[in-house]
Amino acid sequence: MKLASFHHRDTLRFGVVRNDDEVADLSAQPGAPAGLLELLARGDEGMAWLHAALADAPRLALSDVRLAAPIPAPRKFLGLGGNYASHLEEAAKLGLTRPPGQVWFNKQVSCVAGPFDAVHKPRVSDQFDYEGELGVVIGRRCRHVRAEDAMAMVAGYVVVNDMSVRDWQMRAPTHTLGKSFDTHGPFGPWLVTRDEIADPHALRLRTWVNGELRQDGNTAQMIHRIEAMLVELSTAFTLEPGDVLSTGSPAGVGGLMDPPRYLVPGDVVRVEIEGIGHIENRVVAEPDAA
After folding, report:
1. What is the predicted pLDDT for the residue at 94?
2. Which superfamily does CATH assign the domain made up of 77-285 to?
3. InterPro entries, per this entry (predicted)?
4. Shortest CA distance to 247 belongs to which of 167, 118, 154?
């Protein structure tokens, strides 16, 4: 299934996308959770409710709603750096080397944006970049996950643009500031449930800027597989339903081109992953502070 959060008549709702042109609105069905995060937190009971509620849920044309990030307010939004050999090869031009293990960073959850929302080119930097990535959404609360059990903890998959402000990213090894500017975490367009993707490690991933193909990779090229990611993270802390893990980016980011090609207002970035869909975000100048 494709689980979506969306705006309709100025209200945030959730439902299931059907036939790629309509969405079954589950928000007002009896016993409805507050949103997809609460639905996932209910576990098997939540999915049983969904299937029962789906039959009578009103349908809306997809063209009449505005899609939001499937999990509009995740508890955690984490990114994995250097997870594609092709990206590490281009980064080697800057003297960066392959780390010995997984290198995770936080994206503060206030960076979340919808799959087709505008994203802000910061006033404080001209080094605004894109990174198309596969996102993994956690479906079960878990700690000390074993590799053989890891995929059962996954609710599904999304497309992520792990947008980065490169000079701010390099201020500290944590990368947190440069990865967390407001609007710099668009993802969606919906959450494709785990059962719909036969192999998340065999998906073509592409990124275009203004129609020019910049990234063309495959999740088969990931150095660390999803099972290893969940083992690593859950050894340190509890993963919770709705947490978003952005799993790394292949070669082709703008900052490592010669010369660098950073994003400017008016640019349109499209990230597409086979079997999931695409997100597309226009770059605008950062508005004045409220």
Report:
1. 63
2. Fumarylacetoacetase-like, C-terminal domain (3.90.850.10)
3. FAH, Fumarylacetoacetase-like_C, Fumarylacetoacetase_C_sf
4. 154
